[in-house]
Amino acid sequence: MRHNKGFNHLGRTSSHRKAMLSNMANSLILHKRISTTVAKAKSLRSFIEPIITKAKDDTTHNRRMAFRSLRSKTAVNELFREVIVKVGERPGGYTRILKTGNRLGDNAEMCIIELVDYNENMLAAKEEAPKKTRSRRGASKKKSSEKPAAKEETKAPEADTKEEAVKADEVSEEKAAEEPKAEDKSDDQPEEEKAE
């Protein structure tokens, strides 16, 4: 029974699990992204992120602590020389897990685990995205109150009852009917003058 066991044993003995996580961490540091199952990726994330945090302070002791976990000089050198330059300002969360679907053979959930600052596509998309502007409530109220006032000036006075509205419509129709007659008379006058 696994009472109060706080991590995934991944169906392996302790020595096998530590060796596997060490190898996966080496591959992640050297290649910047690897494809694996979701369960292994979550275990790898909790294994490698403390190592990256320690690598921010480049001391002999921290190098030895990283070597104790990684067991590879090339991976330790890459971590302290290349990786820390990019992730040095980040306060945590150095890895990203992207799910890619299920494996054909055993239907296991697969994913890609990568170092966050090395995904050039996502960094480019982040730079191109426009910054969102924040709207304030006071500004929107002022704008909404100003617009109806401008509309009221251009519109005819509004009626309070339906009867007044009908009368106002009739008056506006009469005015519209009178305007073309005035234009017709002005057109007729030059013709009459020509006839005289």
TrEMBL record:
Example of a GO MF term? structural constituent of ribosome
Q: Which InterPro entries match?
A: Ribosomal_bL17, Ribosomal_bL17_CS, Ribosomal_bL17_sf
Q: Where is the composition biased (Basic residues)?
A: 132-142
GO cellular component terms, semicolon-separated:
cytosolic large ribosomal subunit
Biological process (GO) annotations held by this record are: translation
Assembly, in brief, is: Part of the 50S ribosomal subunit. Contacts protein L32.
Q: Know the name of this protein?
A: Large ribosomal subunit protein bL17
Query: Could you tell me which species this protein originates from?
Result: Prolixibacter bellariivorans
